[in-house]
Design goal:
- There is one protein chain.
- This protein is mostly helical.
- The chain has eight helices and no strands.
- The protein folds into two domains: 70 residues; 108 residues, no CATH class.
- The longest helix is centred in the C-terminal third of the chain and has 27 residues.
- The radius of gyration is 18 Å and the shape is globular.
Amino acid sequence: MADPCLTSSDAVLNAERAAIEMYHFAALMLGNESEALRLVESTVASVDVDPCADPSAANGLVRERVLDEVLAVMHRHDPASFSEVPANGPSSCLEEDGAAPLSSSEIAELIAGAGRGLVREWLDHLSQAQRAVFVQRAVLGQDNAATATAINRFARPAFWTPEAVGRLFRQALCSLASSLAHAVPATQS
């Protein structure tokens, strides 16, 4: 029977992969790559990785800690952004059960590929709360409930609901689709 423990080098590689993934996430959330790098380095350094533990559990722990630290920074930068849940505004380009203007794979391709600059520029125009919701949903793949729970760990009072997160995410998807539609003709000229 094989030893269930990872070698020291395997554990380090797993931690490095998780750190790189979380760096990309933190940079999108914060909009500042050097701040994201410092945050991820300090957070990963503080996590004890047991080489005998399930690697996905270690990755989950790193992910959770980085998310908490990023949200703490975002709340410090702009606490007012998280103090109000978005109201039921005008109907978005998405109905509750309608098709999204961008699929998960299209968003992932934009964030990782040539559209990365456009997405980062668009993110810079969002409030901290809008940015936190969009990146958690689109990049981390969290659902509305997990996103609301994460934000509520810092929002006072803790009143973010899955429904409010869903509304804000749908608004963000519509805004991103619109931004991309307007950017395409400008880049093709």
